[in-house]
Amino acid sequence: MIEVCNLTRRFGNNYAVDDVSFTIKEGEIVGLLGPNGAGKSTTMNMITGYLSPTSGKVLVDGVDVFEEPQATKKQIGFLPEQPPLYMDMTVWEYLSFVHDLKNCEFNKKEHLAEIMGLVKITEVKDKLIKNLSKGFKQRVGIAGTLIGNPKIIILDEPTVGLSPEQVIEFRSLVRSLGKKHTVILSTHILGEVQAICGRILVMNQGKIIADQPTASFKQTIGQNNRFQVKIAGPQKEVQNLLRSIHSVRSVSCDGQRDVDAYTYIIEYSGSVEIRKMLFNELAKKGWPILAMEDVSVTLEDVFVQLIKKAEESPEFKANKKQGGDNK
Amino acid sequence: MIAIYKKEMRTYFTTPLGYVFLAVSLFVSAFAFALTTYYSSDPTSNTTSYFTIMIFLMAIFLPILTMRSFSEERRTKTDQLLFTSPISIASLVIGKFLSALSMFLIYVAFSLINLIPLYANVAQNASQPNLALIVGNLMALILVGACFIAIGIFASTLTENSAVAMVITIGILIGLLFIYFINLLIDVPVLETIFEWLSIYGRFSSFTYGVFDIASLIYYLSLTGLFLFLSERVFQVRRLG
């Protein structure tokens, strides 16, 4: 459906997107994950034809986006980071303008009514867009991308600024869209891609550093097992005891005292269940556990892991060596 | 193109922009008309000086119409919608141009009211108003207006600030108009020829004598085309970065 081949985009001397390649099959929901400035938006802008690549190409159904922009643009519905809305139009006027702009062959009234029902904006259709809440504006933006029934829907950071319940609603909307369309969405929230997408592409500094199905992605990042535990007892001795437990890799304590208890973050390796062991050891000493919880994996952790992995790969080492030789 | 045209026309009439343009330019042109014909020191039915003044006034009023054209789209990021829709950049530019031109034509149509007293008062007038002269002047005004609009649209592609776009437009227009007067002062044949070619006002003067000049017609049309083409190029170049 979408083929991205060695896509590169340079702004001055800065490579915003650096030799990125991937393919997306029909019906996939793909999440583009990465911190701000990773090149997600730039990549999306190139797929939609808003920006031209410095080198490389994008094919939609085998057709080059830059050679036949009009044919490919018809296949793509794009919601940029900031929804492209005309604030002094009503919702209906806006959607009808987009309908005309895209030169859509569907019956306007029926098509727009269907889309407005789908994203639940029928009740505000005669309101001016500038008077709508952020969540509604976002939905109007999505409605605009759906006009003309494009095969591909590209959403750039679609949940930024939405309230938690709107986010949940939005996710179910995207999942339902995924049944009929190919969806690409970008985000910097790890939980979001895990909740919606079947496949995750991780970008950092203009490069793709991971491309995996969501299921195996969880395993990759799941290896870093950590939990946080609050123990009442003398800090130094507790820490030593924790360290002595088999398969504990590191113990850190922020030193913040709560009456006589401290909070420790324990990182352990492998799949050994150490919590029971921990409980028994601490019970022997008479140091009660006051609280215990998993530390959720953050995007930063994922990056540390992935970048470490990339650096360990033979390919990277070879590159590095080559670079050194050149100097 | 039609979608863009309709949207632009709608914007002109749902925001103060279109009304401000029509009201101010009609008021000023009525004033200018009165002062140059009935109330001039030597009352006349000759409209040439009126049209000459209008050319200079349009260099200030037409930028009001075009200043927001593309700069506003860029500021509000709606350009992302336009440029990712399956229509060509050229048709976007032409759609915007035609809508501004329509507004200008609406103005020209209303400004014809000024001429009514000229005919009504024929009895008191020493001379019959010269229809050929009026038609020639009107045509020239429309041609020059189209040119100004194209330049204004070009300026609005350069910046996302509509005030800056307006200043740039007025700058270019005043420059192109005043070349004529600079040309009267210099005495270098080569420069004179170049300036003569560039001078929008110089070309206009032949129409004011009631002479239909094919060369001038082509000149104005090509200048309009050139700036529309440049506008389209700006987006192509910006896309490439």
List the helices and strands and how they pair.
The complex is a heterodimer of chains A (327) and B (241).
Chain A: E1 2-11, E2 14-24, E3 29-33, H1 40-47, E4 55-60, E5 63-64, H2 69-73, E6 76-79, H3 91-101, H4 108-118, H5 134-146, E7 152-156, H6 164-177, E8 182-187, H7 190-196, E9 199-204, E10 207-213, H8 214-222, E11 225-232, H9 235-244, E12 248-258, E13 261-268, H10 275-285, E14 289-294, H11 299-312, H12 314-326
Parallel strand pairs in A: 3-8, 3-9, 6-7, 7-8
Antiparallel strand pairs in A: 1-2, 1-4, 4-5, 9-10, 11-13, 11-14, 12-13
Chain B: H1 2-14, H2 16-36, H3 48-66, H4 71-75, H5 79-83, H6 89-111, H7 116-120, H8 131-158, H9 162-185, H10 189-198, H11 200-208, H12 214-240
Helix pairs in contact in B: 1-2, 1-6, 2-3, 2-6, 3-8, 3-9, 3-11, 6-8, 6-12, 8-9, 8-11, 8-12, 9-10
Q: Which key terms come to mind for this protein?
A:
heterodimer; A: alpha/beta; Rossmann fold; Alpha-Beta Plaits; 2 domains; 4-stranded antiparallel β-sheet; 12 helices; elongated; disordered C terminus; B: 241 residues
Describe the structure.
The complex is a heterodimer of chains A (327) and B (241). In chain A, strand 7 (152-156), helix 6 (164-177) and strand 8 form a beta-alpha-beta unit. Helices cover 39% and strands 29% of the residues of chain A. In chain A, the strands form 3 sheets. In chain A, strands 6-7-8-3-9-10 form a 6-stranded mixed beta sheet, with helices on both faces. With 327 residues, chain A is of the alpha/beta class. The longest helix of chain A is centred in the middle third of the chain and has 14 residues, at 164-177. Chain B has 241 residues and is mainly α. Chain B has one domain. Chain B has helices spanning 2-14, 16-36, 48-66, 71-75, 79-83, 89-111, 116-120, 131-158, 162-185, 189-198, 200-208, 214-240. The radius of gyration of chain B is 19 Å and the shape is globular. The two termini of chain B are 25 Å apart. The mean pLDDT of chain B is 87. Chain A binds chain B through residues 9-11, 45, 48-52, 54, 69-71, 73-74, 76, 78, 80, 82, 84-89, 93, 97-98, 100-103, 144, and chain B through 2-4, 6-7, 10-11, 14-15, 76-88, 239-241.
